[in-house]
Amino acid sequence: MILLFRLKQHKYLAALILTIIIVIASAVWLAAAPARGNWQGVPLQFTGDSYFYYARMKEIADGHPFIGNPFYLEHNSELAPAFFVADWLAAWPLFLGLSISATTIFNLFFWSLSFAALFYGVLRRCGVAAKLSSIGALLGYAASFSIIVRAVSLQTVLPVWLWFIWEMLGWQKRPDDKKSVWLLAAAITMSIYVYTYLTQIIAVLLPLMIIYLYFKHRRQEAKYLAMACGLAFIASVPFLVYTWRQIHSPYFWESMRRVGLVYTHLPSGNFLIASFWVMVTLGLWLLLWRWVAALKANETYKKILPFYVLAGMAMIITAGSNIFSGKESENSQHIERFMIVWLVMSLVILAAYIGKYRQPIKTNSRRQKIILSLLSLALLLGVSGYVRKDFSLAAMVRENRQTTVERQSYAAPLRWLEAQESRPVVIWTVGAEDVNNYIPILTKHYVLAP
Question: Quick one: pLDDT band at residue 271, thresholds 50, 70, 90?
């Protein structure tokens, strides 16, 4: 009865969660359907490189928390050349006894629902009505779908990003509350640990926010935000030490070059496109503030406006950092994914405020109305483009239907290997590259060449 009452109170959130469950369940069922009656436990590969992250998760469960290289026996105890806390977040169901295949499906549901619920919560905290928040969260999920179904990155990372935004907005309501400061510090710390690119955004955004508060004579707020940053910095010392060791390891820069490090000052296509949409959105935020006098009386809007504007600026700075540093390590591509979440969130919040203050907007000049309409249409087109591109449900199902049955045949020989060899050994296969990808996932063994 209590559960039914709560669901009735939060019917739009319940509808959102039910919709996400139906979407995921349909995708999994359609993708796995060809293997009905012949399912052997080889996990579905929802994106082309899912096997790489499955191997990393399995390596953690096998007792190598820093991962090293999940394919090579001689490197399994070395430092990972990249982030790994996100892998820990994805691997924990394995410690409960779930198989890698069951863990994959569990994570898809768990992190998708976490993303949607946090997105909804952030919109509600920004003063958006429950119904529109539910629609907005579903739109955000659709725009980020192709990267949420991808194991680990950014499946576990985007919910952390949303949690940081949630705590930041909560702190702004009670900046001198100790609990809010500690929760914000925890969210900052997790953001730093979980993903290198998110660390860069946070490292630019928070100083900008402190400087803004200081020069706006909100120095007590600046002090408490600096306190949260200080607590997060102390908690992040192990991360900083580990990062220093990573950078100075003999294989780090060679690994970076192999995975996409380019020495260039030229902006990438991703940076130009994504930054354009962010600039359009920033224009909308600022014009609404300037042209709708009634908004100045709204405390929620006054609190969230600086944060969203500065967050947009921080993402532009980090995405285009190679223009100054001369090192492009796919920054623009990875940070664009956070921009997508920010863009959808901004669109929904702005739509809510435009609807709420439509009467004052009607008093604007014709020129102002035209500019506001064009910017709103441009942002809507940008978000629609990301939804169309990233909600690749049909493509994901089609790819899995073509390979699911074939990959189930890997299970029997790999189970035999697992039973015959009690110690981890190196397996040499000839003409079976795809099987190599699954040896570290379904056995304790490693490969001669991935």
Answer: confident
